[in-house]
Amino acid sequence: MQHYFLNQSIKVGQLISIPTEVKKHWIKVMRASDGTKAEFVDDHERVFIGELVQSSTTASIKVLCEKAFNAELPFSVTIVCGVSKNDKADWIVRKATEMGVDRVIFFASEWSIAKWPLNRVQKKLSRLNTIALSAAEQSHRNRVPLVDYQPKLESIIAADYSQKIVAYEESAKAGEESMLHHCINQMHLGDSLVAVFGPEGGIAPSEIALLESYGFKKAGLGPRILRTETAPLYLLAAISAFSELS
Amino acid sequence: MQHYFLNQSIKVGQLISIPTEVKKHWIKVMRASDGTKAEFVDDHERVFIGELVQSSTTASIKVLCEKAFNAELPFSVTIVCGVSKNDKADWIVRKATEMGVDRVIFFASEWSIAKWPLNRVQKKLSRLNTIALSAAEQSHRNRVPLVDYQPKLESIIAADYSQKIVAYEESAKAGEESMLHHCINQMHLGDSLVAVFGPEGGIAPSEIALLESYGFKKAGLGPRILRTETAPLYLLAAISAFSELS
Asked: Would you say B230 and A98 are in contact if contact means Cβ atoms under 8 Å apart?
C-alpha cells in the first residue's frame, strides 16, 4: 500500500482534495483508480487509511479509518555529517531515513575535500529534503526527517541533547566498544541523541577537542573501518537493535 | 596505512616479491616509495606490517612484524539475497563486506524481476569478488568474503548453519522483534549464521514455506520497511552491535 504525507489535520470520514504532488505519484505513476487504498499521515504523525474517490473533475481521498502504527525510533536521533564527495549526501539521507533518523545536519568540516558553496546550499537542501520525503514514504515512517546545513560545527553542537557522541576511528582502533551501548542504555522514550561523523578524511583533532568541550563522548562502531557514508547507518541500525529488537 | 591481501604464507624478516595487482595500486596509485609501510594479510588471516624495498629492477615487501589484529565478527555470517535490479548487487557486496559479512550468495528468487543469464554469471561473480576484495582492503578485514550464485534456493539452504533466519517483512509488520536477538544470543565463537533476503518484490510464500521446512526462523528487522539492499546491512550492524559492542 502506498504511504503519503499530508501536511494537514485528518479526520475519519473527511473528504480531502488530493495535493498535486501526491496526485502525480499515486494516480499517474502508481495508476490508482476509484477505491484504491493508501496510507496518509497527518501533521501530528498519525496514520490513516483512505481511498481514492474520483469524479469527472476532481480527485479526493475519503478517509476510512485510523491505523494505530508507530514506525519511529523510541528516541530522536540527529546525525551530523562532514560534507563528503560525490552523491554521498543523497545516499546518507536516503538510507538514514529508512533507518529511522530524525534529523540530518551537514557541516563544513576541517578535513572536507568537498565544499558546499553558500549560493548552492538552498538548492542542495531542497533536493535532499525531497529525497528524505520520498524515502520516508517508502519506509512507511510517521515523520519526515529534516535535512539541514550549518557551516560551523560549534553552532550545531551547542544545542541541547540527552546523549552526545562522536564516531571516532581512533577510538575504534584503540578497542573502544562500550560507549554507544552505554549511551543508549541511559536513554528513555522521547530523549534525543546526536552523533557526529567526519568526512572521508576523518575528523580533525581540533574538532574532537571542541566536541569534547561540549560533552561529546568518543564512540567506536566495531573493529572494521567504515566509510564515511556507512558509519551513520551502522549507528542507526545499532540503536534500533538495542532499543527495538532486544 | 594501506592494507593488502597476499595469498601466501608470510614470515617476519621475509622479503616478498610484490604481486602485480598490489604493485599497481600501492606504487602507481598510492605512490608508495622506499620505506613506505603497509599491512599485509597472509593466507591464514594474520596481519603483518611490511615496508617497500625497491631496487632499479625489483620491488619487494620487507616483512617487519606481525600485528595482532582481528577485525572479523565473532561468528561467520552468510547473507543470501534474491537477485535485484540495477547495481544493487555491487552495493550489497561492498557494504556487507565493510560490515563484516563472510559470504554473499545471490539466488534466482521467484519474485526477482532481474535475472542473471547463465552465460553471464561468471563475469558477474568475477566483478563482485573484485569489489569484495577492494572493500575488505579498505575496511582492514582479515578475510575477503566470498561471493557466489546459486539458481536454486534449496541447494543453498540445505547446508549446515548454527542459526538460520529469513528476514520477512510480514513478520516485521506483525510486530516480530525478538527472533534476531534470540538467535544471536544463542551463538558462540566460531558458529555460523545464515540470513535470507528477498528481492525488491519480497519473498514468495512458497519460499517461506521451503525455508521453514529447513528450520529457518522468520525475523523482523524493526518497524520500518527496509529496501532489499538495506536489510542485509541492518542485520550485519545489529549482529555487530549485539556481539561486539555490548
From this structure: yes
